[in-house]
Every structure is written in structure tokens, then in C-alpha cells.
Amino acid sequence: MEHDQEPEECLVQTQMYCVKRPVYNQELLQGQLHKKEKTPQPLSQKIAHSCRCSSKKAKSHLYSFLPILKWLPRYPVKAYLLGDIVSGISTGVMQLPQGLAYALLAAVPPVFGLYSSFYPVFLYTFFGTSRHISIGTFAVISLMIGGVAVREAPDEMFNIMESNSTNSTDLLENYKARDSMRVKVAVAVTLLSGIIQLSLGLLRFGFVAIYLTEPLVRGFTTAAAVHVFTSQLKYLLGIKTKRYSGALSVLYSLIAVLSNITKTNIASLVVGLTCIVLLLSGKEINDRFKKKLPAPIPMEIIVVIIATGVSAGMNLSSTYEVDVVGHIPTGLLAPTGPDITLIPAVFIDALAIAIVGFSMTISMAKIFALKHGYTIDGNQELIALGICNSAGSFFQTFAVTCSMSRSLVQESTGGKTQIAGTLSSIMVLLVIVAIGYLFEPLPQTVLAAIVMVNLKGMFKQFGDITHFWKTSKIELAIWVVAFVASVFLGLDYGLLTAVAFAVITVIYRTQRPQYRILGQIPNTDIYCDVEEYEEVKEYPGIKIFQANASLYFANSELYANALKKKTGVDPCAILAAKKKAQKRHAKELKQTNEHRKKTVLKLVSATTNDMETSVKHEVLNDELPLNGKSADANAQGTSPDELEHFMEPMTNVHCIILDFTPVNFVDSVGAKKLKSVIKEYEEVGVCLCIAGCSGPVVDDLTRLNFFEKSTRNLLFHTVHDAVLSCQLKIVSVPQTASDIC
């Protein structure tokens, strides 16, 4: 686009504006500003300073490590205690059945789910910074633990074959040996994941959760819900099949269930379906009358109590061969050390569990902190989870994290502090030491029903597909890859695949940024995309190019190609056209010289002729034009200036401004490519300016020896400064290309 103003008017306006507003380039600013002198501190001094201790510093570290010392002395008993009691009881009655149910997912006896619902929850009160989340067993983490336990202690190792009969004494002993081994594996994974979390927290690595983006986590948890649902089908139907883990475990589990569908225990199926209907009805009532109910109806514990009573009264285990929870030892187990010989075999799994567990916790903690106006410390949350898992492993617990459903109940029923979590753990403790044996007749199909119903929220995440389709195709791709990879490759390798793909999308975005040509909004110093707004105008002879990405090895070539395409100025094409024109001109000049020689010969041969022959010679001489000029005129030596006039102008662009405002860094490859581009455009008479460089980018370019004496003059503080400078150069003097630069 071009302005309607004449060049003289444009020059006057530009000069008047420059009087009011001086043009700043980086060299001028460097000369006027003086950097602060910073004395580098030796490493020994830094270490000594960090190790220096004072009473104030020790107190700060103690409060940071034990947040309970900070909030408990200020606990407002009258305002908070009643809400915490109600919330603790409501959460506790959910914690009990979920602890039993999720133990099945972890492939350990149900009582270990109760242990995992007590020790870690109690410890989090002292070390956690979130006031509203409920720590304990969670479906995704339990399933990941179970996958490792089944892989390291498969049924074949203990001569357990698929059968619907458990009357054999030897078979019962084999089951006990298998369960004991799986508990050891689960405890070893828990210890290692706790150590990883604790180490990351002490090293201030709380930022690792940012690599688990929301689409990735939601796709991953949706896939985990598919795994969980599939694994519970055999308990719902009352059939015995091998439990699979690893790649394609979902397909193998479905095939195993369908191949044994004729062995379905009708009593188990009826009990399970009845519990599912009751649980879904209870959840619907709680959701619909949420504002009217003082507390949610604890349908899970109600179903557990009723099912336990019916099972004991009708003797379902003996009469209908319904699988029940079985023996629940009374009291707490003595602490024992985990089997550390298993650690090398479960390291990758423990790392994945540690990261996923922390991601679940920090995401829910941030939601509640934002809602209630307080802050949480991500590093301290890592430390708290690490202590809960590593210390709990000595008491036979498996890895825990934040439960979304229980956290919502704890917050909605009036919970104000971590006291609510403590009360819920005390309720579980009472069951363990006093009345745990009462739940021995509880059918396993009831626990499967509880697990399946709690997956309802996760299955709703399939709606993310339509949401991301409308908002971001790249985030949709991350969701789909996380889901598909986790379903078919298993949760551990699926998570690694999803994280790798998410990182690749970041690289893709930097390699495929938006390239734009900017123009000015009239009477302002604001520049926008000329293709997006009608009011935006370009200055004649000036192109402003912007790419919303940094310049580095992965996209430097793409950047240069986009610059040529968007500005319409390709130095290589222009130079090739010039060379072609020069060759054409030389050819025509050669032909002219040949004609001239022929003319001279005719003159010599015509010396004996009369005046009429001379006149013919003159006419012949006049009939040899070349581009509007006579052969005599072109026979002279051709200077570069004459060549410029001889050829038509290749481009009407004299200055290109590179807007570096979105650029965060430049590496050595990017700096070399930028320098090469500047030289290419100088050869065809186009001056390149760089505007909007941040301080770190200028430091990068300086460190990479990008600047020469003339190059630093091309840096400008803002795009508008660069535009004003280019206008003065173009309008004030009719220069050649080299003069502009």
C-alpha cells in the first residue's frame, strides 16, 4: 500500500514529528546510559552465605518445612472447628470404602488400602500447605501401582492358573504368597516414588509439573479410567481371569473377560448392578440438591454397610460363591523396611508415579488456593508428598495423591484447614483397630461398583475433544496422543510418549510461527498486521516484518525464507535478474559493435562514390537504435550508473525493519543467518533494521560477535524509531542502495 501524500509533504511531516520526538537507536542509548557495575561473587562466598545460619533464618526454614507450626497457633476454634469436624466426618466415610476399593486396583489385599488411608493422610497435616485437598488413595495411582505389582509378581510365578474354584489348600497358600510379594513390590515403588518427590522438593524442582499440561493430564486420566473400568469387570461379573499389565493390557483384559463371560456369577452381577444404581442415584441427588443438603449423602458407606449385612445374613460367600474381602487383621502392623532389591526393576515406574501424583495434587491445590485466597508452595507440596509416601512405605502403604472427589466433598462440606483431613484419618484408624473385621463379608463386586461409579467424572472428559477442536488443534492432538498412547502402551510408557509429544509441539510451534507484515495505524506509533485491519497503512519503500518466535537453529532457515516471501524481495532472484540483464546487454552491445564495424567497412568502400552514397551511409547509421539510443552513444564504455539506468528497477522496497519484540533468544546459528541476510539485502540496495530487541537478546547478539561498527547502527529501540529513521533516509536524498544502508 502507498500513501496519497507527495514525498515532499511526507518529508516535512516526518521532520516535524522528529523534532517533537527524537529517534532513538541502540547505539545512541548505549552512549547515554551507563551500566551498573556488578561485582561477581565467588562460588565459595555463595556457598558460605547459603550455609550461614541465624535465628531468623532457622525459624523461617522450620516454618517452611513444618507449615503446621505457622497456622495451628492461629487456628480460630470458634470459626473453623465445627466446619472441619463435619468435613472430616464426611470425607472419612468416603475414605473408608474407597481405600478398600482402590486396594483391588493396586493388586494388594483390601486392608492395605486402609493403611494407605491413614498414615499418609495424618502426615500431610504437618507438612502440607493446601487446606482443602484430601490426600489418600486415588484410582490412577493405584492402577499404576497395580500394573507394576502384576508385572513383577505375575500369577504364573506362583503356579496360579485361571480357575473359578479356590477350594484347594495349596492354591490358597499360593494366593497368599502372591499377595505378599505384590505388597513388597507396591511398598518398594512407594518408597522410591516418595524419595524422588522428596529429592525434587529439596532441590526446588517443583516446576517439573508444568510439563504435564492440562490437555495431557486430562487425556492421560481418561485413558486411566478406561484401564480402571476394564480391570473391574471381572470383579463385577464374579469371574476369575489373569490380570494383565503393560502394552495392550486393556485389549487382553477385555478378551479374557469376554472369553469367560459364560462363567459369570449371577449373584455377584446382581449385587454389583444394584450397588451401581444406588450409587448413581445418590450422586444425582447430591448434585441436584447440593444447596439444600447440609452435607452430601454418604451413599458409598451406606452401600458398604447394607451390602456387608446382606452378605453376612445370606452367607453369599458359601451359598452363591460370591468373592468377598476376606480376612482383615485388627490393629496396625509393626513398621518394616521395604525390599530395596526390587528398586532397580521399578525405578521408571516410580518416577512416573511420583510426577503424576504431584501433578494431581498441585493442580487441585492451586484451584482451591485461588478460590479461597491463599497461596501454596509447590516445592513444599513435593516434600509433603515425598514424606507421606516414603515414611508410609515402612507401614505397608502404597503411593497416594490427592483425590478429586474427596477433595470436592471436603471443601463443599465446610472444611477450612488440614484438621479435616486429620479427622478423616482418625475415622479410618478406628476402623482398623476396632471394627475392621466387620467388613470381612463385604463382596468384592461392591468395591468394583464403587470404583466404576467414581470414574463418571473422568469419562466426562471425553467432552474435551469437542472443546479443544474449537479452541486449539494442537492441544487436541496432545489430548488424543496422551489418551491413545496410555490406553495401548500402558500408563507408564503412555505418559512418557505424551510428554515427548507435548515437547515436540513446542518445537513445532517455534518452527511454524505466524509471519506478518506490519503497518501503522494512522496518527499513532502503533503497528499491526496489514492483512488483518483495513485502516493499517504501509509506508512506501518500507516493509516491517515480524515473526512471533525466537531465532535459533530449528527455524533460522524458515525465518529467512518467510522474510523473502512476505516482503516480496528476494536478493538471490534480484541478483540473478541483474546478471541476466547484464548478459543480455553485453550481447546486444556486441551485436551493435559488429554492425558498427560493417558500417565502417561500407564507409571505406564508399570513398569513390558520390554524395548520395554517403547519405545512404548516414541513413544506415541512423537505423541502428538500441533501447532508444543510437549505436554511437552505446558504443562508449558502459559505467555502472549507466547500467542502473539501462535496467528497469527490480524492487521499490528500500528498507526492511525486523520487529524483534517477540524474540526471546538468538543462538549462534540464528545470529549467523541474520548476518547473512543483512549482507544479502545490502547487495541489492535494501537496508535492514532491527527494532524492539530486549536486553537479553542484545546480550546474546553481542556475545555471538554479531555486531560490527555498521551493524549496531541498524538497531532501534522501537519499530516507530526505525520507521522514522528510514523515512528520513528515503525521502531526504535520492540515494543509491549503499547510501541508504
Q: Could you provide a short overview of the structure?
A:
This protein is mainly alpha-helical.
Describe, in plain words, how this protein is organized in 3D.
The protein is mainly α. The protein has two domains: about 70-155 and about 185-240 and about 250-260 and about 265-325 and about 335-510, no CATH class; about 515-570 and about 650-730, STAS domain (Transcription Regulator spoIIAA). The protein contains 33 helices and ten strands. The strands form three sheets. A six-stranded mixed beta sheet has the order 4-3-5-8-9-10, sandwiched between helices. It has a two-stranded antiparallel ribbon with strand order 1-2. Strands 6-7 form a two-stranded antiparallel sheet. Helix 6 (about 75-105) crosses helix 20 (about 445-455). The radius of gyration is 39 Å and the shape is elongated. Residues about 1-10, about 10-20, about 615-650 and about 735-740 have low confidence and may be disordered.
